[in-house]
Structure formats: C-alpha cells, structure tokens
Amino acid sequence: MKMHQLSMFLENKPGRLSEPCRLLADAGINILTLSVADTQQFGILRLIVAGWEQAKAVLEESGFVVNVTEVVATEVVDQPGGLAGILEIIESAGLNIEYMYAFTFRCEDKAVIVFRFDNNDDAVSALQEKGVNVVSGVELYERARQ
Fold first, then answer.
1. Is 94 left (phi over 0), alpha (psi -120 to 50) or beta?
2. What span, in angstroms and rounded, lies between the C-alpha atoms of 1 and 98?
3. Domain 2-69 belongs to what topology?
4. Across-strand partners of 74?
5. pLDDT tens-digit profile of 39-94?
6. In the chain, where are the structural domains located?
7. N or C: which end of the chain has fewer CB within 10 A?
C-alpha cells in the first residue's frame, strides 16, 4: 500500500526545475504528481512517477542525486471536512505527518492525497482500520490514465 517517491535538491535558479522534468519526458516517463518546497537557495522536488526505478536511473545518469522514500496515498472525500476526518484518524493514532500534497486528479467524489508519515506502516493500519482506502501505486497509475 506504500509507494515510492523520488526526491532531489535543486538550486533555486531559473531552469533548474525544467531539467529533470525534460529528462523524464524524453525517457517517456509520466509524472503523476509533484511537489516543490523551496528556500532562498535550493528547493526539494518530490515526484511520483510511473516507473520510479527507471526514472531514478535516468535522473542519476544526468548527475542528480535522487533519494527514494516511501509515502502513502489515501482517498479523501472531496467535500468540506474530508481532510479533517483523515487528520483526526492520524492524530488519534499518535502519528506525525512530515508533509503532504495532493494528486492532480480525482476519482468520482474523492481526491487523492500523498502523505509522508513518521511511521508509514502504523499510518496504513490506522487508516485501514477506520475504513479509509489506502491507494496502491498500481491503482494510482491506472487512475491517472483514465
């Protein structure tokens, strides 16, 4: 139920973000979602792609240092209070969210949000116990193609 996310540091300068995106495009690798967090001098690019192992190799061959982490994606009812309900489950389980971001697509009345928890396994268990659909990487790739 966990999926792989690629992360890399980029200088906070014009053109730095387009380079890894162009490399992936040229290799035929689809970016399903991404997040960029920045500071004055650098940014962290986080990506979920179709084919993370190939993407990692392509980026590293071009000199990028790529870190692979596991993240959890969940369905969230796309209405007021949907996210609050998920956060309450996580809080009651005593878990910490390190960061989160949303996918660019939705399925019916649900949005999909990516979480990085301090303990992904415990988070998956807590969410599933409360009936939350934790989405697999394969399911996300299929939804992105629809």
1. left
2. 18
3. VC0802-like (3.30.2130)
4. 113, 134
5. 778 889 999 998 999 999 999 999 999 999 999 999 898 889 999 999 999 999 99
6. 2-69, 71-145
7. C
